[in-house]
Amino acid sequence: MNRYTLNDITRPSGGFAMLAVDQREAMRLMFAAAGAAQPVTDQVLTDFKVSAAKVLSPYASAILVDQQFCYRQVIAQRAVAQPCATIVAADAFIPGNGIPVDSVVIDKHVDPEAVRRDGGKALKLLVLWRSDEDPGQRLEMVRAFNQLCHAHGLLSIIEPVVRPPRRGDRFDREQAIIEAAKELGDSGADLYKVEMPLNGKGTQQALLEASQRLNEHINMPWVILSSGVDEKLFPRAVRVAMQAGASGFLAGRAVWSSVVGLPDTELMLRDIAAPKLQRLGEIVDEMMARR
Question: In this entry, which stretches build a coiled coil (predicted)?
Answer without folding.
Answer: none
